[in-house]
Sequence to fold (128 residues):
Amino acid sequence: MNPIEHESNIDSIEESMIYVLVFSENYASSTWCLDELTKILDCKKRYGRVVIPVFYKVDPSIVRNQRETYAEVFVKHEHQFEDKIDKVHAWKAAQTKACVSNSIKFIFVCVETFMCSFCVVLASHLKN
Fold:
C-alpha cells in the first residue's frame, strides 16, 4: 500500500459504523495498522462506533499487555520513532483499549472457519 492509499484508508475510517479489528501475531509490526487502530478508537470515542476485536492465533492478553512478540515489536518502534515517542505510546494505549471493551466481550473466532463460511455464502449469492 502506498502512502496515498494509506491516507485514503484513514479518511474512510470516519465513514464506517462498525470496525472489526483482526489482531494477529504480527499486527503490531505494521505502523499503518497501528495508525488505523488509533483512528478507529478515536472514532469510537467521538461517534460511539462499534469496535469488535478478533484474535487470530494470538492470545488477547498478549495484545492487551504488549507481551511476547508485541513487546519485542514495541521496543523496535520505540527506537525507530524516538523523536515521535508519543505516537508509540498512543499505539500501545490504543491496543490496550481495543482489547478492553465494556460493551463488547472478547470474540474468539477462528478466521479460517469464518472465511470458509463467508466464501460459501458469497458463492451462492454470486450464482443467483
In short: The radius of gyration is 16 Å. Residues 31-47 form the longest helix (17 residues). The domain at 3-127 is CATH 3.40.50.10140 (Rossmann fold).
